[in-house]
Amino acid sequence: MILYPNAKINIGLNILKRRNDGYHDISSVFYPIYNLYDILEVIPSSNFSFTCSGISTSKTNNICIKAYEILNQDFDIGNVSIHLEKRIPIGAGLGGGSSDASFLLKALNVLFNLKMSKNQLNEYAKKIGADCPFFIDNTPKHVTGVGDIMKNLDLNLSGYDIKFTFPEISISTAEAYKNVIPKNSENNLMQYINEPISKWKENIKNDFEESIFKNHPSLNKLKKEIYSKGAIYASMTGSGSVLYGLFNK
User: Fold this and answer.
1) What are the CB-based long-range contacts (under 8 Å, 24+) for 52-60?
2) pLDDT value at 185 more than 70
3) Is 131 known to be catalytic?
4) Which of 86, 103, 122, 234 is deepest in the core (most CB within 10 A)?
5) Domains plus CATH for the chain?
6) Which of 86, 100, 106, 131 is catalytic?
7) What is the pTM of this model?
8) Residue 180 in this model has a pLDDT that exceeds 90
């Protein structure tokens, strides 16, 4: 079975508070990007194996291995051979690793006829990582909690070109959260997301930008360049470092 785990972008990302468990409550809109994807091949095998190509990634501590082990522990599905062609940049805020893991859960569910519902798949995805449940349904969502509480969102950006800038900077999630200052945003993200995109620039913010742009001034410069090229809205996605711009087609 071959699948194409896609990326996502964040439209607005407010870090509301640090929780007692060390995680953070957020408010964000996740939007799937179907034309930016990895390639994942999964087949039953006599021995377990995980290999990868493309962008360099861990072969021994990969999130796909974690996803397989979680299901195998409960269902004893047996060995599989997994190959990942990594195309989505790592440490970019595009959710590539989370997408890989969730797509693997969906593949194993089909391959071994586990008959799990979306709700069951979501519960397993939560065990793997905070962003993973989004990629089970893989449609626009308003995301709260630690990224695990999702509400369907009627948002369609197909009338716009989404163009990416890929800096040669990798920012770990740990680094990003270490420097961000949580604050209960006065902005109501869901109010502004339904307004014309021309108003997003002034009202929809990614809270990570403030601290990350201080440590990496080149990213702030790149964002300004995106606007100078005619973007209606530009932002860093997730905890960075990739930036995107929305342009009229």
Assistant:
1) 52/83, 52/84, 52/85, 52/86, 53/83, 53/84, 53/85, 53/86, 54/84, 54/85, 54/86, 54/87, 55/86, 55/87, 55/88, 55/89, 55/90, 56/86, 57/84, 57/86, 57/90
2) no
3) yes
4) 103
5) 2-151 (3.30.230.10), 156-248 (3.30.70.890)
6) 131
7) 0.94
8) no
